[in-house]
Amino acid sequence: MPASSSKSSAKSGKAVCLLSGGLDSSTCLALACRDFECYALSFDYGQRHRIELEAAARVAHALGAKEHRTAKIDLRVFGGSALTSHQLAVPKHRTAQEMSGGIPVTYVPARNTIFLSYALAWAEVLESSDIFIGVNAIDYSGYPDCRPEFIAAFERMANLATKSGVEGRTLVKVHTPLIELSKAGIVKLAAELGVDFSLTHSCYDPTPDGHPCGQCDSCLLRQKGFDEAGLRDPLPYPA
Predict the structure, then answer these.
(1) Residue 227, number of CB atoms within 10 A of its CB
(2) How far apart are CA 237 and CA 215, in angstroms?
(3) Contact of 90 with 205, CB cutoff 8 Å
(4) What is the pLDDT of residue 100?
(5) Is 2's pLDDT higher than 50?
(6) Nearest by Cα to 117 from 79, 74, 172
(7) pLDDT tens-digit map of 95-133
(8) Interval 196-205 mean pLDDT
(9) 3-class DSSP assignment, residue 40
(10) pLDDT, position 141
(11) What is the pLDDT of residue 1?
């Protein structure tokens, strides 16, 4: 496991890494583990299924995270997303053009703002100045909180909002190493880093036995990435 080698343990200190258990966040954690002692943070936020949390636990262990915590919050109290409300259907069979044509119903209002705020709190307790998030602005579903300008704005806010920032002890950096990569680029990078793809989970609407649906935006983008990278996705998709 290259991401948790003894060489990496002597490097740049601590980092908090947001981890959903999906392809992007797993690759991001693998990258971070090369240079930092990583504290992985996942969220039980009332999402449609818990399969991604099981995947996050597997990935954190496999990549050698120093610690993995799951924060329990409930975004169902607000709703407004197909990922937090069963009254809204997850879109299926959308084309690339349709995915790029607006903000989809799978967008969870303010999710990355909330997640990054929790990461910031843990980073301050750990006296860490580094936060990693696997957002991607190339092959993605149009979420406004995956854009570089959002990340830059959050970073500016973070350095105004914390005791350590005001006292000048810690200057927070939000790392987005995947933000300019295509899905194929992320798949290739993950393979180079030794990420076990079979441990990850990307589907928005999995079957009762936990298999990906193969039809939602996340499944389609993942399959596109593997196809363009010339690699096989080990997850069991429907025939």
Answers:
(1) 14
(2) 9
(3) yes
(4) 79
(5) no
(6) 172
(7) 988 887 788 999 999 999 999 999 999 999 999 999 999
(8) 97
(9) strand
(10) 64
(11) 41
154, 174 contact by CB (below 8 A): yes
Under a CB-based contact definition with an 8 Å cutoff, are residues 76 and 82 in contact? no
Phi, psi of 43 (to 5 degrees): -135, 130
Domains within the chain, CATH numbers bracketed: 2-229 (3.40.50.620)
Determine the residue type at 204.
Y
Q: What type of residue is 179?
A: I
Give 208's contacts (C-beta < 8 A, 6+ positions apart). Answer: none
- Indicate the residue type of 162: T
Q: What pLDDT is attached to residue 170? A: 77
Q: Phi/psi of residue 57, each to 5°? A: -65, -40
SS3 16: strand
Closest listed residue to residue 132, CA positions, set 42, 18, 9 = 18
Query: Chain-centre distance of CA 167, in angstroms?
Result: 30
Q: Three-state SS for 190?
A: helix
